Structures are given as C-alpha cells and as structure tokens.
Amino acid sequence: MRINEDTLLEGKYVVLVPYNSDHVPRYHQWMGSPELQKLTASEPLTLEQEYDMQRSWREDDDKCTFIILDKQLWADPAVQEEECMVGDINIFLTDPSDPTLAELEIMIAEPNYRGKGIGKEVIRMMICYGVMKLGVRKFEAKIGLDNKISIALFKKFKFQEQSVSEVFQEMTLELTVDEDLQKWLLGDMSFMQEREYQKIRDSRQAACPPLTQ
Ligand SMILES: CC(C)(COP(=O)(O)OP(=O)(O)OC[C@H]1O[C@@H](n2cnc3c(N)ncnc32)[C@H](O)[C@@H]1OP(=O)(O)O)[C@@H](O)C(=O)NCCC(=O)NCCS
C-alpha cells in the first residue's frame, strides 16, 4: 500500500516506519530462524524473494506494513535505521468485497525485545492507524494454538475467539470496532504522533552521513 510510504508513527518505546528495501537484509536474516517461521506460519524465502515480497507489501492495495524500530536507539542519528529494527506489524485487507475487514499480524523478531510492552504499544498504534486511516471496522488475528503469549496479547485488546482450526492448529480471533472500542482506544491519541518519514530520514542522514570508502 502506498498510503503509508511517507508515514512515521512515533510512540513511547517504538517508532514505526514503512518497510523499504534497506530493511530487507535484516528482515531476511530474521526469517531464517525456524522459531520465527513456526510462530508466524511463514515459509523461508530467498533474499531475492524477500525483495519481491517487500515490493508487494509496498505496492499492493491490500497490504500495509510498518517496521518496528527501537525508539531509544533510533534517537541517535549515528545509529543506522536498520540497526534499530526489532520487528514488524502488518494489516492485510483479506476480502476484496469488504475493505473494512483486516487481518492484523505482529512479530517482535528480536528476542531481547519481547515481554517489554512493545507488542501492546504497537498493536494499539496499528489498530488506531487502521481505523483512522484505512477505515477498518473489523480486525482478525490468526494465531497458532500453542502461541499463548500472542493469544494473551490480542485478548488484552478485547479480541474474541471466533473459530479454531484443528487442521492448521490455529485460532481466529476477532475485534469489531464499536463505539466503546473507539472511546477506549481512540479517545486519547496523544500516545502516538504521525510525522513525515522521508524528511526525518533525510535529517538523520544529514546529521550523520554514512561513511564512504
Ligand atoms: C507475541 C508477541 C507479539 C508479543 O509481543 P511482546 O512485546 O513480547 O508482548 P508484550 O510485552 O507487549 O506483552 C503483551 C502481553 O502478552 C503476554 N505476555 C508477554 N510475555 C509473556 C510471557 N513471557 N509469558 C506469558 N505471557 C506473556 C502478557 O499478557 C502481556 O500483557 P501484560 O504485560 O499486561 O501482562 C512477541 O512475543 C512475538 O512477536 N513473538 C514472536 C513472533 C510471534 O509469536 N508473533 C505472533 C504471531 S501470531
């Protein structure tokens, strides 16, 4: 999706930036992990396929993705953006006849960053973004039955169990965007600032230009 190609979302612990080709090598390295492949139900890709995937996430109208950065590291312009990457969050519009239905996926790829509240912050940011900017009215999450942490995370946001697939060993959870949810999650949006990504990226690079050989 091109809607977020110049969008940076800043929270308390994280900064979300659009997934671009500079992020692909690190992303590809993450997805080589059998643990992450299992937890995210993903197949391993070659580096070339990962670049194709990044282009598709950028260009296809049904996909919106952000890379999650460690805000504290990123605050130092001497630290390259790719070194601040900790995971990703996606919205996938699953039904072409209903653009208000979205699947939400999250991955905190760096184990050291798990269990610190980042998942909670990022899910809240992406629900708000999905509702406000993409017009999402219902979110779905498909989670492996043994991924108790992820199930607990989505239930914190009032996702309800909808169905269980014994074949795929996964559960589908749903969240309908009603008035109560809007008041609860969108009532105070001061926890997140939206800024222009390219301007900030340029100013970080100008402050600390990469070393040339
Ligand atoms: C699942 C995942 C997204 C959770 O993100 P996180 O940043 O680690 O989670 P948070 O620290 O925000 O914790 C959110 C909730 O998860 C639960 N949780 C987190 N760590 C936990 C642990 N070690 N044991 C039990 N529950 C845990 C708690 O309910 C917690 O809420 P609380 O702190 O208010 O009690 C992250 O661990 C991850 O990406 N893991 C690998 C990939 C994956 O499983 N992706 C999901 C595919 S569906």
Mean pLDDT: 94
Strand portion: 25-35%
Cα separation of the termini:
35 Å
**Distinct small molecules:** coenzyme A
Question: What would your notes on this structure say?
Answer:
- N-acetyltransferase that mediates the acetylation of the N-terminal residues of alpha- and beta-tubulin.
- GO terms for molecular function: tubulin N-terminal-methionine acetyltransferase activity.
- Keywords: Acyltransferase, Transferase.
- InterPro entries: Acyl_CoA_acyltransferase, GNAT_dom, NAT9-like.
- Belongs to the acetyltransferase family. GNAT subfamily.
- The structure is a single chain.
- By secondary structure, this protein is an alpha+beta fold.
- It contains 8 helices and 9 strands.
- It has a 9-stranded mixed beta sheet, with helices on both faces.
- A hairpin with a 7-residue loop joins strand 4 and strand 5.
- The longest helix has 17 residues.
- The N and C termini lie far apart (35 Å).
- The model has no long low-confidence stretch (mean pLDDT 94).
- Coenzyme A (COA) binds next to strand 5, helix 5 and helix 6.
- The site of coenzyme A (COA) has 20 residues, from strand 5, helix 5 and helix 6.
List keywords for this structure.
about 210 residues, alpha+beta, 9-stranded mixed β-sheet, 8 helices, 9 strands, about 35% helix, binds coenzyme A
List the helices and strands and how they pair.
Blueprint: E1 7-10, E2 14-18, H1 24-30, H2 34-39, H3 47-59, E3 63-70, H4 71-74, E4 85-93, E5 101-108, H5 118-134, E6 138-144, H6 148-156, E7 160-165, E8 170-176, H7 179-186, E9 193-196, H8 197-207
Parallel strand pairs: 5-6
Antiparallel strand pairs: 1-2, 1-9, 2-3, 3-4, 4-5, 6-8, 7-8
Helix pairs in contact: 1-3
The structure holds coenzyme A.
Coenzyme A binds at residues 39-40, 87, 106-108, 114-120, 143, 147, 149-150, 152-153, 156.
